[in-house]
Amino acid sequence: MQFTKRDLTKKSEDVSEWYTRVVALAELADYGPVKGTMIIRPYGYAIWELIQADFDRRIKANGVQNAYFPLFIPESLLKKEAAHVEGFSPELAVVTIAGGEELGEKIVVRPTSETIMYQTFANWVQSWRDLPLKVNQWCNVVRWEKRTYPFLRTSEFLWQEGHTAHATHDDAYETVLWAMDEYADLYREAFALPGYVGRKSASERFAGADDTLTYEVLMPGGKVLQSCTSHDLGQNFSKPFGITFQDQDSKTQHVWQTSWGLSTRSIGALILAHGDDSGLKLPPRLAPIQVAVLPIKGADPARISELTRPLMHAGVRVKVDDADHESLGSRINTWELKGVPLRMEIGTRELDEGVVTLVRRDTGEKFQVAHADLAQRVVEVLDEIQANMLCEAEDFLRDNTRDALDYSAFKEILAGPRGFIRAFWCEDPACEAFIKEETKATTRCLPLDAPEERGSCVRCEKDAKHRWLFGQAY
Amino acid sequence: MQFTKRDLTKKSEDVSEWYTRVVALAELADYGPVKGTMIIRPYGYAIWELIQADFDRRIKANGVQNAYFPLFIPESLLKKEAAHVEGFSPELAVVTIAGGEELGEKIVVRPTSETIMYQTFANWVQSWRDLPLKVNQWCNVVRWEKRTYPFLRTSEFLWQEGHTAHATHDDAYETVLWAMDEYADLYREAFALPGYVGRKSASERFAGADDTLTYEVLMPGGKVLQSCTSHDLGQNFSKPFGITFQDQDSKTQHVWQTSWGLSTRSIGALILAHGDDSGLKLPPRLAPIQVAVLPIKGADPARISELTRPLMHAGVRVKVDDADHESLGSRINTWELKGVPLRMEIGTRELDEGVVTLVRRDTGEKFQVAHADLAQRVVEVLDEIQANMLCEAEDFLRDNTRDALDYSAFKEILAGPRGFIRAFWCEDPACEAFIKEETKATTRCLPLDAPEERGSCVRCEKDAKHRWLFGQAY
Q: Confidence band (pLDDT; 50, 70, 90) for A12?
């Protein structure tokens, strides 16, 4: 699919088509030759590198260590936890031939690494002194898809998967909460994406978990997205895999486990959430290029380098676009499309007058800054853009979270603006399935801070204790 | 395989067994459940992270951008370059079932990414302005092996693969040389591993390359190892994949390409090269822990933190081992086994006297340093250790590179000390094959700086122009 810049659909008219085109036009990703696969282009991958650097710092500060486990899992190993294999079976890619020979036992390409990691954890953990064990890996995983929706739905994706083992359930649960706290903070502070933290219903949980926490975000058009999850695995894996330890009284016990993951899917959420009719809008903290410098014809390159050097020293990611075979207008379009937070235009006149012109991608605001103040002002303005983008996204989330007191109001919201719907639910899976069947809305989560109340289920009107969040998923 | 610390074989007696055990005992790697696969444990993976950080900085400084291409390659795509597919076919892992269905076309798990990348490069490159194109990816690749030799020979390994496309052969060849320069510098300066840079013979080249540069290093026991390679691909791929560009005269031309890679195999070389009978010996630049601090019973933890804080601020990677259920002797053994460059022992007396005791892993030298000088001295000593380790490795390489003037001398060296052998070769593949069959020694490379001379082939005595390096490969 080849588009030219003029082909960008208006986001306000067709979000889905806009998304497909902006991903191609901003050079974020391409389609791979195998169905469901994608190629992450350098500009898209640089966003992933910024996400990785941020999250990797967070987990290391908490004592989590990176490791690497094999891509290939023997089929028999995957089958050790019943719910787990049942959940993943329909999505598996299976190797049956290797080294020129038919294999005796089929090998599964990892869809997630619980089973292959936990077999080994059983060897690593012997005593209470070996706990907590906190391991993470950055890797690729495969869950078969027939249609590619770049970043958001792909057969292969990149992610981090954290896996921990603890002596007590309390200690494990603290880690489940800690991981979700870090995700929520990362999403707010770096992605400028506020969301809801809550518990998944039994039917929406991770295959093999006792409890799944999720961070749910709102997309333009009113659809919602599960952005990352943190699981309380209880002893569901430690029992079949025999991960035991001698406690301080020399008794043998099974460990309590957690796992939590964040994937390249998050880049899809970032693109969708912030763009507009002119293209991407990247929050400064995740922008591979924070300032695009556009010299106007005739501007002395040496003097421009002198101006940009202090910016780079201040840690700002700067790109000078001196492609003088393209008009200034065309270069401006390119950097708007690519969502660069700040544009700096500079010609001979500006150089002589000791000023530069800055243009904000978020507000379109255009203003001049003196050369002497440039580095300091740019750093300040980037912070302002980051804060402003979060603020806008918070307004959008608040304005699109609605209470539905009865089923007709519930359906009306879904027929109209959609977004998040707060409604009492009796917690009967049959009711949940009925709602999903009829409205395509699923339970997103029970917010962690939801108080216990008295109400009646939005569908069956039986007693209900909590207002859950519902929405139509991407 | 479970060993206890006492089970470390003497390196001087059995290098191969020592290697297997030190990998397990120092917690660098484990065996995966599928034949040929390995688990890189946190301590081993931290070494890989240091290698990655160093090399990633180098390539980005040269304008190379990271990207990510799919793991899965359609079989038909791999077949587009004849020599390439022939070289890799025996090692492929093949997916035949996915999403619960038999696939129409088989899918290969990437053994390397030339074919999948270059199909896409054909879309990315249109004009001379799009060149040079410089892309790299950090990823996993699979080349089937029946036996695992951790790091050195595994079915799945991690690597970086750089791929560039250029308007001219000269420009491409400059990149082939540049990549090899960076590898050689990384190996010398970070790994403390000197080696020979040279050209591979036609039979030892990468499948699909016109020319392969290699960095060859020497291992204890006299075997040699190809540590990384940089390939001149000519137009061998751009023609079948149709990667063309309009040059400045609007003529259509095929691009010239390069690829170059460095893998987790390099960690195997690092372990083998530097260890001794007590375990690993890590050069400070690749040591996840540079200073192991061992408080002696009774030493006040608060005062020890006060001492280590300035070290951490100076960028030194410090680990305080206060496992007081283990004796000091046992803790010393552990950190020697793990190859930590510098050990710091500190008890109440040292705290009161304002000194600490430092012990160098490379020389065993033990000395005292005043608290006030600690950070500065530690930084200096780490540099000295790094330099000393390189120096020792250089002596070893020089002492084990020998000239063989005739075939009996050649065989005598291989029967005795082995190492690198410098010998005239007529460049006839038949001679090379004969030598390999009879002596297990292969041509390693023609050093880039080898002068043209007049001599006669070490085997057939026909005219030869160059002295090649031979050796028995790991």
A: confident
In this predicted structure, what is the pLDDT of residue B5? 63
The residue segments making up the domain with residue B362 are: 289-384
- Alpha-carbon distance A240 to nearest alpha carbon in chain B (angstroms): 16
Residue A279 lies in a domain: no
Q: Is the Cβ pair A41, B158 closer than 8 Å?
A: no
Query: Minimal Cα–Cα distance from A70 to chain B, Å?
Result: 6
Q: What is the DSSP letter of B127?
A: B
Domain-ending residue, one of A356, A387, A418? A387
B37, B39, B70: residue with CB nearest A37: B70
Query: Structure pTM?
Result: 0.96
The confidence score (pLDDT) of residue A35 equals: 86
Write the residue in A66, A99, A323 that is nearest to B90 by C-beta. A99
Q: What are phi and psi of A446, to 5 degrees?
A: -100, 110
DSSP A359-408: EETTT--EEEEEGGGHHHHHHHHHHHHHHHHHHHHHHHHHHTEEE-SSHH
pLDDT class of A87 with cuts at 50, 70, 90: confident
Within a domain: B340: yes
Report pLDDT digits (tens) over B142-164: 999 988 899 999 999 999 999 99
| B353 shares a domain with B418 | no
Look at B140 and A142 and tell me if their CB atoms are within 8 Å.
Answer: no
- Provide the CATH number for the domain around residue A363: 3.40.50.800
- Are A326 and A410 within one domain? no
Residues of B in contact with A2 (CB under 8 A): 123
pLDDT tier for residue A298 given thresholds of 50, 70 and 90: confident
Domain assignment present for A393: no
Q: Are residues A345 and A229 in the same domain?
A: no
Q: Calculate what percentage of chain B has a pLDDT beyond 70.
A: 99
* % of chain A exceeding 70 in pLDDT: 99
CB pairs under 8 A between A and B: 169
- Quote the pLDDT of residue A1: 46
Q: What is the pLDDT of residue B4?
A: 65
For residue A453, CA distances in Å to A323, A443, B48 come to 62, 18, 52
Q: Find the angle CA(B214)-CA(B217)-CA(B220) to the nearest 5 degrees.
A: 155
Task: Please answer yes or no on whether A95 and B92 come within 8 Å at the CB atom.
Answer: no
CB contact under 8 A, B42 and A66: yes
d(CA A464, nearest CA chain B) in Å: 38
- Residues B280 and B271: beta-carbon distance below 8 Å: yes
**How far apart are the CA of B409 and the nearest CA of chain A, in angstroms?**
39
What is the model's pLDDT at position B1?
Answer: 46
**Number of H-type helices and E-type strands within chain A:** 14, 25
Q: How far is A324 from chain B (nearest CA, A)?
A: 12
Can you give the CATH number for the domain in which B133 is found?
Answer: 3.30.930.10
Q: Which of A248, A274, A300 is the last residue of a domain?
A: A274
Are residues A308 and A267 part of one domain?
no
Query: What is the mean pLDDT of the segment spanning B330-346?
Result: 96
pLDDT at res. B3: 60
CATH code of A459's domain:
3.30.110.30
The H-or-E segment that residue A117 falls in is helix A114-124
pLDDT tens, residue by residue, A300-310:
999 999 999 99
Residue A245: inside a domain: yes
ipTM of the predicted structure? Answer: 0.96
Q: Which of B96, B120, B140 sits opposite A140 (nearest CB)?
A: B140
Regarding whether A186 and A306 lie in a shared domain, the answer is no
Q: Is residue A361 a contact partner of residue A291, using CB atoms and an 8 Å limit? A: no
Q: Does one domain contain both B17 and B159? A: yes
Residues in chain B: 474
Residues B16 and B41 in one domain: yes
The count of structural domains within chain B is 3
Same domain, B220 and B109: yes
Q: How far is residue B229's CA from residue B162's CA, in Å, rounded to a whole number?
A: 11
Strands B291-295 and B342-346, how do they pair?
parallel
Give CA–CA dist A151/A154, Å, rounded: 6
In tens, the pLDDT along A300-349 reads 999 999 999 999 999 999 999 988 789 999 999 999 999 999 999 999 99
Of all residues in chain A, the one with the smallest CA distance to B144 is A99
Chosen from A35, A39, A123 to mutate, greatest number of chain B CBs within 10 A? A39
- Give me the pLDDT at residue A379, please: 98
